[in-house]
What we know:
Two copies of one chain form a homodimer. The first copy, chain A, is α/β, with parallel strands linked by helices. Chain A has helices spanning 14-31, 46-52, 60-65, 83-89, 91-97, 159-175, 192-204, 217-226, 238-251, 292-305, 308-323, 335-346, and strands at residues 2-11, 35-41, 69-74, 102-108, 123-129, 133-142, 150-158, 179-184, 211-216, 233-236, 261-263, 271-273. Chain A has a ten-stranded mixed beta sheet with strand order 2-1-3-12-11-4-5-10-8-9, with helices on both faces. In chain A, helix 1 links the parallel strand 1 and strand 2 (35-41). The longest helix of chain A is centred in the first third of the chain and has 18 residues, at 14-31. At the A-B interface, helix 4, strand 6, strand 7, helix 7 and helix 8 of A face helix 4, strand 6, strand 7, helix 7 and helix 8 of B. Strand 7 of chain A pairs antiparallel with strand 7 (150-158) of chain B, so a sheet runs across the interface. Chains A, B: GO terms for molecular function: D-malate dehydrogenase (decarboxylating) (NAD+) activity; magnesium ion binding; NAD binding; tartrate decarboxylase activity; tartrate dehydrogenase activity. Chains A, B: It catalyses: (2R,3R)-tartrate + H(+) = (R)-glycerate + CO2; (R)-malate + NAD(+) = pyruvate + CO2 + NADH; (2R,3S)-tartrate + NAD(+) = 2-hydroxy-3-oxosuccinate + NADH + H(+); (2R,3R)-tartrate + NAD(+) = 2-hydroxy-3-oxosuccinate + NADH + H(+). Chains A, B: Has multiple catalytic activities. Apart from catalyzing the oxidation of (+)-tartrate to oxaloglycolate, also converts meso-tartrate to D-glycerate and catalyzes the oxidative decarboxylation of D-malate to pyruvate.
Amino acid sequence: MKTYKIALLPGDGIGRDVTAAAWAVLEKAxxxxxxxxxxxSYPWSxxxxxxxxxxxxxxxIETLRSFDAILLGAVGWPAKVPDSVSLHGLLLPIRKAFVQxxxxxxxxxxPGVQGPLRSDGFDILCIRENTEGEYSGAGGRVxxxxxxxxxxxxxxxxxxxxxxxxxxxxxxxxARSGKxxxxxxxxxxxxxxxxxxxxxxxxxxxxxxxxxxxxxxxxMAARMVMAPDSLDVVVASNLFGDILTDLGAAIQGGxxxxxxxxxxxxxxxxxxxxxxxxxxxxxxxxxIANPIAAIWxxxxxxxxxxxxxxAARVMASIEATTARGIxxxxxxxxxxxxxxxVLSVLG
Amino acid sequence: MKTYKIALLPGDGIGRDVTAAAWAVLEKAxxxxxxxxxxxSYPWSxxxxxxxxxxxxxxxIETLRSFDAILLGAVGWPAKVPDSVSLHGLLLPIRKAFVQxxxxxxxxxxPGVQGPLRSDGFDILCIRENTEGEYSGAGGRVxxxxxxxxxxxxxxxxxxxxxxxxxxxxxxxxARSGKxxxxxxxxxxxxxxxxxxxxxxxxxxxxxxxxxxxxxxxxMAARMVMAPDSLDVVVASNLFGDILTDLGAAIQGGxxxxxxxxxxxxxxxxxxxxxxxxxxxxxxxxxIANPIAAIWxxxxxxxxxxxxxxAARVMASIEATTARGIxxxxxxxxxxxxxxxVLSVLG
Lengths: 347, 347
Ligand SMILES: CC(C)[C@H](C(=O)O)[C@@H](O)C(=O)O
Ligand SMILES: CC(C)[C@H](C(=O)O)[C@@H](O)C(=O)O
């Protein structure tokens, strides 16, 4: 039987709750479709940090490298460890080390889910650059604590980094409606964002069948709310993609429904799948986190592993669940009720 | 009779259309309230650039300095002059040179206006830092045009700059509901945004009556759509404020309703008032731009000049107009119909 080796990183807070739920669904889906998933779980988290002084062992990245994929819950618990430490010690290094440069986030309303917008006919695929740009971690502070203090934070964009994510966007657009929206702020950031726009222009010559439009991030944020149905594939930098995908999560009814895949398109290292939501310490382990975003992320993992039919079955089970109203209203149903429904539809 | 000297900068595209409309309203409002507005109009714009090689004369800033306030339409016409040239040659230098560090943008639904959200009970005041941060214009590119090219863009935050905008935010919050939301991305940008969060913490000790909460920009964007009524005063950096205020414009029904004030709180130089929208070349001079954002910005100017009662009368005239459905639906009414209605209510 075909077996995939999966590293489970439940992480912190509700990350643990939703990973357990997603895993139950994925295991069952695999079993009844003739393959198996072999999980190894690692306790890397803020609790781990408090005991060991680091978010993961020194050889953490090397340990993960041998897996076929990584399923992550959520990282961070600010009351225990500052986010700037926990996230830079676990989540962000994995994205970078494994060159998971394409962060894919689908935004559409599941059946039975009511979003905050009056209009609900949209199906947006956000492609977020995931390894450089505004998240380069380059910067510093001088005259710390004095009136004269200055902090700088430098965004670093490389042609390689920008070109590959744009190319990924063009390919996705080609496979969907042929419409690509590229998001910058080149009217205010004249180095990084003008650079991005130039590369977009250059690549567009290679994709004459794709209609690419450049938007400023402010205009795009407004458009996602005023005319989301005018968008299809949206490609953006690390920070802009982060903002737009939380907005995307909002219009699709909330973070409980927002799935994501951190993809290494060359398959030179494992890809990682995680719900967009955070660890939500306030509701951790109360059994009330919505596992749908995590299960959906798991479906994206199956698809990436080449098990598209099984991925589609998981998605159909999620959709049948929300269509019945289960898990469709944030906060209404318990984690295990939603999970049980997905499992039972799965048959 | 008390006279205020106003510099008019209609700028490009619909900037000219809406400035004319706003001026008609402001003049009439002044007349019937015992003061006068003395306008000097400057043609600085992309057309000016094409003729003169710069967006304004070398002594442009000095020329503007002697005015009591500046009323601006919109700057930019990318088909004529790249935005990175036009905006860095006119709009952004004024904000910086005159230390207009507080960009104030109110977001609420005018009567009769239907926004894109199902929920419409919100009244948000965004305070955007306007002189530094992500708009510092610091950066560069190496190995231009090669595969090895790298572009960097550096955000520069000074303690002076961050402290004064946060203080402005705390004061506004104190004058309103006592609730302040401060927006950063300190989980990913560990120099600039952690710095901002630290200063927020420090200042909060001075404002025990203000309840301040820090949000990440992604979470705030989602919140503005999912629970806008949970927000009151929101303070953010230059870029984050830019994004949030276009989102604010969207939830208030569109850019035709979004007003703004670029304030120099120390009054050491003139403040500038402008609609949030751009120059919209595609509809320039067709007589169909909505002048409400510009008129509202004019009301903010009157308030800043100390003519609060007249400002309130202008706002009431806008509200009576939209309540009748005039100007309430984007694209429905012509500029002069909307302006005529505001003028006639003004009496
Ligand atoms: C936790 C945080 C650093 C992260 C990000 O901004 O990338 C999260 O918001 C996300 O979108 O995955
Ligand atoms: C035109 C552009 C540079 C400007 C900005 O980003 O500041 C505009 O979007 C605004 O919000 O006033």
